[in-house]
Amino acid sequence: MDWQALWLSVKLSCFTVLFLIPLAILVGRGLAYYQFRGKSWLEALILVPLVLPPTVIGYYLLVGLGNQSFIGGFAEQFFGQQLVFNFSGLVIASIIVNIPFAVQPIQRAYETVPIDIRDAAACCGMSRLRIFLKVELPMVWPGVLTALVLCFSHVLGEFGVVLMLGGNIAGETKTISIAIYDSVQAFDFDSAGMMSLVLLLFAVSALALTTSMSRRLGGHNGATQR
């Protein structure tokens, strides 16, 4: 069992969720509430990581974040580190790859919030910020929770993009999925099986817990609305 790779994967998942979920709440809310020209194209762009092969996404990220790119050159010049083959680059890549897993559940959750409830809250004198924090967020919490678990689990098992952008640097970019691949290449099937089992058990447990909590929270919100 490669504990260093497991810890790096958990760390990567935590950073990705920390930065992505707040952004996904704002984007999902905007897509659910507002109509604007090009909305369909924006929604399609958000879903692109779901249909493109990881190697294609990894290639474009490698080009877009490399030292010769504007973003990569800026990071190296002002922060003194490159984004390719670096943990920071993996965080950026994981955020981009997991946008659909975060935005979609939250957008669907916001679409279920009745307009009448927001209007009633506004009539009661609540500010937009208070409506967002006290009315909307509690009602869309199941969607936020689903997005959080999906993103965390997906980052934990991500392989193609991580390998192309980060390589296989122990303690820096070698995640548990890459450790599994290395173990199989070395015919160490015991270690590969153990690490695979850990990911499998985590995925099943996380999804079961999310489904249960979402059902309870959804039922509570429905009872509150009635």
Automatic annotation (TrEMBL):
It is found in: Cell inner membrane; Cell membrane. Pfam families: BPD_transp_1. Keywords: Cell inner membrane, Cell membrane, Membrane, Molybdenum, Transmembrane, Transmembrane helix, Transport. The keyword Transmembrane applies. It comes from the Bacteria. Gene3D superfamilies: MetI-like. It is a multi-pass membrane protein. The chain crosses the membrane at residues 6-28, 40-63, 83-103, 137-156, 192-210. InterPro entries: MetI-like (IPR000515), MetI-like_sf (IPR035906), ModB_ABC (IPR011867). The keyword Transit peptide does not apply. Residues 6-210 form the ABC transmembrane type-1 domain. Belongs to the binding-protein-dependent transport system permease family. CysTW subfamily. Part of the binding-protein-dependent transport system for molybdenum; probably responsible for the translocation of the substrate across the membrane. This is Molybdenum transport system permease. It comes from Shewanella ulleungensis.
